[in-house]
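agent> step 3/5: call structure_predict on target 'PQQ-dependent sugar dehydrogenase' (Hymenobacter negativus).
agent> reason: downstream docking stage needs a structural representation; sequence fetched in step 2, passing through unchanged.
tool.input:
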Amino acid sequence: MMKTLRIAALALLLGAGCQPAARAQAPALTTFPVGSTTVTASALASNLNTVWELVWGPDNFLWMTERGGRVSRVDPATGQVLPLLTIPDVTQTGESGLLGLAVMATPTAGTYWVFVVYNYTDQLILKEKLVRYTYANGALSSPTVLLGNISATTTHSGSRLLLLADGTLLMTTGDAQQQPQAQNTSSLNGKILRLNLDGTIPANNPIAGNPLYTFGHRNPQGLLQLADGRIYSSEHGPNNDDEINKIEAGRNYGWPNVEGLCNLPAEATFCAANNVREPLTTWTPTVAPAGLAYYDHPAIPGWRGSLLLGTLGGSRLMQLTLDASGLTIPTRTDFLSGFGRLRAICVSPQGKVYIGTSNRDGRGLPAATDDRILVLENRAYVATATVAAQKLAFELFPNPAQRQATVRLAAPTQVLTVRDLLGRTLLRVQPTGLTATLDLAGLRAGTYLVQADGPMGRNTQKLTIE
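tool.output (status=ok):
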């Protein structure tokens, strides 16, 4: 009996040693049901100032921007905020300031590219620019302006950033209160722009030599891509017709000639003549839709296959279900009221949802501990050790390879991506089972990265082609 107890105690100690350091479980601020699941909301970090963006980084930390100019990493285990840099030329006035953020790993271990978009002042004129920093050894350095001199005002600046699976970057811009410019394909305002990671224009953009990806936008503030490539955006309407849009290259989204659906005679005429893509859903009265995420994790089954939307004026989290084609939103369900303006949202590989409040942005009623990062989680969910150990393991052979390689998966995986060492996507395969073949015939000899993405997270291995 004593021997059994000693073995059990040793197993517990060894198991504890394999776990990351964690804070004591935070007090529940509220709970609510999602189907048969109880979701608990707690505070990860407090006393922040207008959280604008949250992304899950390649280092398994949260990365955050605050509108005043600060970029930070946040430890999801302890809630510790680790400031990296307060960008000196950020201009915060009205809705302007430090806005969107994207983070990606580089081929150098522990080094990331960090993309930010913010407003700045140039000879007393407010403008907007996209800048890439390099992160290494706990610091941001080497700022490189990828796109600047974008017209701005104190409202309608956009601007979310999204790294696409093809190795390019999307950036949303608002109309900067210059409404006709949204329809002007030579203007950078009222657009979703697409750039290479060095700021050059992709050769296959809808208009040659133009960063335009889509146009006719008023003020898009949410942006995401699903594993199958579909892209969605949330957009602020005027006093009516907030929108969720499916983003398709080259399409016109109507503003300012169309508000919401093409359901008025003049709108219908304009839509027919200008290839306008109607929104999937609209809101009147408006809710001020902001951060947008996709949920596909077993921790909260009732949210799987849905968009999750933070709202500012609506002050609540919304679940937007998608049909199988991703072309309609059959239902909309509200959650998490009582925390004020909700702007930023991201989902971790563990199925937790992180939401940043925006109550100190001049339009909210901040509580004493605002602004906060909230965590929504199913505390009863425990991934088994077997699943955790196998979740994204895969074999890659032969390695080195020549014209073909085989991937043997330990668990179902949504997509396999082959990238070069600059992070550019060269090949994507959606496995139909536990094995997949990579056709390497079009790739030159060299070193590449093979990345597996699934509901439980991500794993990457090197592949050498001879």
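agent> step 4/5: record observation. The chain has two domains: 30-377, 385-465.
agent> proceeding.
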